[in-house]
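so im writing up the methods section and need the beta-ketoacyl-[acyl-carrier-protein] synthase III record in one place, dumping it here so i stop losing it
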Amino acid sequence: MAHASGLVSPSFPSSLRRRNLSLLGVSRSGFSQFGRIHHRVLCCLAVEGQNKNVSDLSPSPMPRLVTQGCKLIGCGSAVPDLLVSNDDLANIVNTSDEWISVRTGIRNRRILSGKDSLTGLAAAAAKNALQMAKVEPDDVDLVLMCTSTPEDLFGSAPQIQRALGCTRNPLAYDITAACSGFILGLVSAACHIRGGGFKNVLVIGADSLSRHVDWTDRSTCILFGDAAGAVVVQACDGNEDGLFSFDLHSDGDGQRHLNASIKEGEPHDGLGSNGSVVGFPPRRAAYSFIEMNGKEVFRFAVRCVPQSIESALEKASLTSSNIDWLLLHQANQRIIDAVATRLDVPPERVISNLANYGNTSAASIPLALDEAVRSGKVQSGHIIAAAGFGAGVTWGSAIMRWG
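--- predicted struct ---
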């Protein structure tokens, strides 16, 4: 198992100071740059109802510096036109609307068809996010395309950059982490801003899992849909920082419960065997359909996701009562409900749009966020605990402020 965790906020959220909270051990961290070496700086300030002089604290092994912050200033989303309901699925597999909705909470999903493309969806979502953020394409310094279903083996991010009309040729690359991809993208954006001097970073979550589903398998075909969502992460002063902490993990042992592994196919047409080299030329290879052990994935999610969120909250010196919204990867409503119960977050503070879109993998968190922001539910200054989890297996959480 590998994991990463950190405190990425150099300042305590001002909205929480207004709540007159009395907290112990408020931690700060960031990046400082000396020449070409980046140092991670950690320092602690004890708050016990009175102010303490810096000279009274134990000396820090690293310089006490405030770094550049980052904040989320715009979001956008896009979905395919084709809507497929549970009743539609009941026409091709042995299922029903009641059977699906009771077990998953899903009633509809959007599916790519015809001339639609994942790249087109991602570009549309990114344009919407840039428009809300009032950032021009030529002011974008980095495009992160979080997807496990690129339309080119070598990645889709450069095509998003081209579609947006970014004439300065900013860096663009893919992040492959399935349903955890967007959270990893957020943390990566923060690292580029804090340690690399980037100003505007587009983080896009987009997946078309419908292309990798066996539509005769009732256990998986009912779950997935296609979509894209995006956010603009912008550099800001340290006292405006909006990404307070994160907690990231992976465990390769879980791959057996959720995967779409590569399979060896038929020999290439027209090529004979090479008698001197066994197994050459290689056979064609293609990825299998998504294979999932639903019970094991459920157990993994309801155990690990609350732990990750609690860890991230602790690093930010917060509790679940301090957050305004819980925003989880939209995989299954029973998972969302179980995690919320574990964290003592009431239903009215849980964001869910699973019923309308199904599991859209890396797109699910930014898609739900965009709907919540545009409906007026999530407002500037609100604190969000977000978590992604899925194939790999990977999982992680981030505590952030909108706006």
